[in-house]
Amino acid sequence: MNLAIFLLALFDGVAYAALVFIVALGLTLIFGVMRILNVAHGSLYAIGAYATVSLTGYFLALGFAPVFAFPLMIVSAVLVGILIGGPLEYFLLRRIYDKSEVLQLLVTFAVFMILEDVQRLVWGTRPYFESSALQVLGNVSVFGVTYTAYQLILLPLIAVVLLLGMRFFLRHTITGKLITATTEDREAAQSIGVDADKVFLFTFVIGAVLAGLGGALASPTTSILPGMGADMIVLSFAVVATAGLGQIEGAALTALMIGLGRSFAVYLYPEISVLVPYLIMVLVLLVRPEGLFGSPAARKI
Amino acid sequence: MTTKTHSTKAKASMKSPLTFLWVIGVLAVIAVPFTTPSIQLLFNFAMAKGLAVLGVTVLLRAGQVSFGHALYFGIAAYAGAFLMASMPAADFFVVLIVGVAGAVLAGLFVGLFVVRYRGIFFGMLNLAFSMIFWSILEKFYHYTGGADGIRFARPTVLGQVLTHGQFEMMLYYSVVVLMVVLGWFTQRWFASPIGQLFQTIKTNETRLEYLGISPRRALLSGYLLSAALCGVGGVMMGMAQGVVTPEYVWWVRSAEMVFIAVLGGAGSVHGAFLGALIYEVVRTYASVYAGDIWQMILGGFLLIIILFAPGGLIGILESLFRRGSGKEGARK
Amino acid sequence: MKTQFVKRVVAATIAAALPLAASAADKPKSLNVGMTTFLTGPASVFGVPARNAAEILVENINADGGINGVPVNISFIDEGAGAEALTSEYRRMVESGSVEVMMAAISSGNCQTLAPLAEDLQVPNLMWDCGTQRIFEENDYKYVFRTQANATPEMLATVLYLLKTTPDFKTIAVVNQDYAWGRDSWDIFRTALKAMKPDVEVVAEFFPKFGSPDFSTEISRLQALRPDVILSTSWGGDLDTFVQQASQRGLLNTSTFVLPLAESSLERLGSALTAGHIVGARGDHYFLHPDRRDDEDFQTFMQQYQDKTGEISVYPVFHASQAIAALKAAYEKAIEENGVDWPSEDQLLAALEGLTFQGLGREVTIREDNQGIEDQLLGVSVQTGDYPFATMENIMIFDGDELTTPVGQKSIDWVGTLDAGFVDSVTVDSYEN
After folding, report:
1. What is each CA distance from C304 to A94, C2, C288, C359, in whole angstroms?
2. Which of the following CATH numbers is that of domain C2-130+295-361: 2.40.170.20, 1.20.1530.20, 3.40.50.1360, 3.40.50.2300?
3. pTM of this prediction?
4. Which of A8, A98, C57, C108 has the fewest Cβ atoms surrounding its Cβ within 10 A?
5. Chain A contact for B255, CB < 8 A?
6. How many CB pairs under 8 A join B and C?
7. Which of B284, B285, B295, B297 to mutate to test binding with chain C, by most C CBs within 10 Å of its CB?
8. C80-135 residue pLDDT tens
9. Residues of chain C neighbouring B145 (CB-CB closer than 8 A)
């Protein structure tokens, strides 16, 4: 394996990892704060992608320039967070915080099943493809191999910005600190006047926006079709558990390991590429039972 | 309606009118091939699935949820399928034993590792193992048949070659017997000393340690039982379908088992089978009469149960009977 | 339990003997047909168009007064609901006596599960879309018939078209979905290619998982390897994603793509599928079918379909039309040959043997082993500007008879015996577009 191939595999791995990280970030944030492993995260991801494709298609048909695809991604993600994430927390999850982890997870699983059918009713079964955003940025050539600038540069850049932004937000802003405090000890936080309900709602909406954003960012590169959420959610679970629940930096590192592991597998032994995320998960948890960055007593956010 | 033998019923809830109901339920199930043969296969599937759900239910008694128990369902089914594919005249009982042995062996291997974990990590690790096995089934398709799985002819039964109808009848009553016997056994196991220790993991694990008992060993014993039960369900399902596919191990099937366990009434032996039956019926008919929204119907059904009847279907039944008869219910 | 068996056996024997006593059946109120198709899951890109087409065609038959005055009634089972729900519902439909004929299935796995079941239940079953060639090569069936081709002629026609249009290529890579169809179709393709052009080198074989959202790494590697030809038998969202991603990164400019199922993705791929790539249709299925596009029935249906769905027809629509045409033709043939008002099941089965019928494509004949003989259409993509997506030019239609594995032989063995001379020996009709 020569250096060129090594670098090519590296680029592919990083681009893939970036997308996985963005989705896992929302999942791990919600888990860190609310202790709910949200299966419906996969649906929010899919709906984010569908919404982006529909909105982009609509506005481009009106004659807007393709570059508008970028702000529309953010619009879609925010819409998913507010229109679906908000009501989901407010009307449903709020009622089950006192229930066991299993029941909470099953509630989100039920929501996932319902949203899967909602997607099909709204968007049908036909795959969509809308790559205006990707074409705007053009291609980059490395060692005679053409990459899209979108995947090679933009996606990793957004992932890094989100990682740093989230760290900053949680550690250096009032809202972030409130979230962290509520996570540590809900009752204590409430006794000093923190409105825990509001914090939970806010966190869930942010998590949902991140899921939607993951879908929006994935949409120019892949077919949007029923079932796309199910695959993503299993992968994100693997990332979150391997990282240590609620561990943002851990999620970034794990996503990178999985992305690189997968792309090197495609170059060296393609048949095992599907196995990579789960192998990494088992191996990591074998050595570190609480995940890469997790520890039983540690702060979970 | 399903479930239970005379002895368990007598033991568990001597005076409950529910006892009577279970007897009627089992009799009704026994009568199905003669009264309504068109749903015989559906019931057969439901009971096979119910056996696997019983495995998940066992773990729920210790407060642990596995998101990967389809692993044992699938391993047993594949072990049986490999045997039948290599020895076409294999006997039904040999296939059953080999399949379950495969599940128990795998359960021991994975169990030794996962009993160190609790809660979400326990669930996720089980998921990871099942997904690894799934990938292997898909990838090594020269041996496993890939996504098409393995198809096999009917096994012989005690040296007899049966026709399609006879075999289905035999299979149906075998699964009824297995349901009653294993349901009874599991109930007894919960009441046994090791079963009691196992259930303490849910309520107070540290107490076990004070008693000088290894919680891991207690959990492992229940884990092996649950793997075996899933294995029985898997082999019976495989033989009922005449084919095993990687879909047997896919995570959605694991989730479905947990789904049914909670639907029926988390931790209830009767609930596992009742839940499986209702689930299978709802799912089949929803996919026929509302093909576009059957997932939505199932999801909504589950939501309503969790939010308004956390005791599951069993809980609803019991409260109905408590109210109806004014007697003390038999909540187990 | 033994006496119960005996009772059942006796009952079954009497039931089986009854239709023999009466040589024809009474005319029913309606002819009920069950069809399994994907309404959910990724394969619903095929299943939903097929259901829509079946509904239109059944309405058309009924508007004409049905089959010998008997209206047709079709109901659907979702293949996406899982194997248990599918088999138990299939059984329930048949055993409750609510259907006379079944049509199953899209998925090859489901066909392999349901074919023996149909035989056990003694219900005539028309396999209307699945590709597996194994069914009739590994077993004999009395109740199961296929109203289309199978993977062997489909792949063989693809190899032949490639060798006729691009005879000088040296290297090939494959990117197929990792499930039975992806693996089996590559086995047949590779065996045929090695037999007819042994000097070709296979430089890479990728089997990304079914439903993979990302082929970036595979594309990078393909760009580094630069094969002359890239084969992909993928379909639906997987094919769309692969071609789109490859197109964006310029891979379509450096390699010739061979896409045996791309006819079903043409409309969705839009401008991404540039000119010069080989497009197949799993049979002679194309909304601009050169032999059929001027026929009135063809035009009427295409208009009806477009009005109903807003989309152009894809191959599952043609497959559905063939199954329904076979159904109608078989009943009419049985009625005529036996001089009855309505045929018995045995008369229907006899009529299906050797039946010739025509759906939206060319005529199809059911061979003695119950396999359908269907012609194969392939073309090269071209962006003419008439449509906002690629259409086909340089179309060839291969004679299905010569490409279908002879009765009693296994596909892989037979395909392996072919040689370079086969390319020039086959019957083919060529059209400019």
Report:
1. 50, 57, 15, 15
2. 3.40.50.2300
3. 0.84
4. A98
5. yes
6. 99
7. B284
8. 877 778 888 898 889 888 899 999 999 888 898 899 889 988 999 999 999 889 89
9. 180
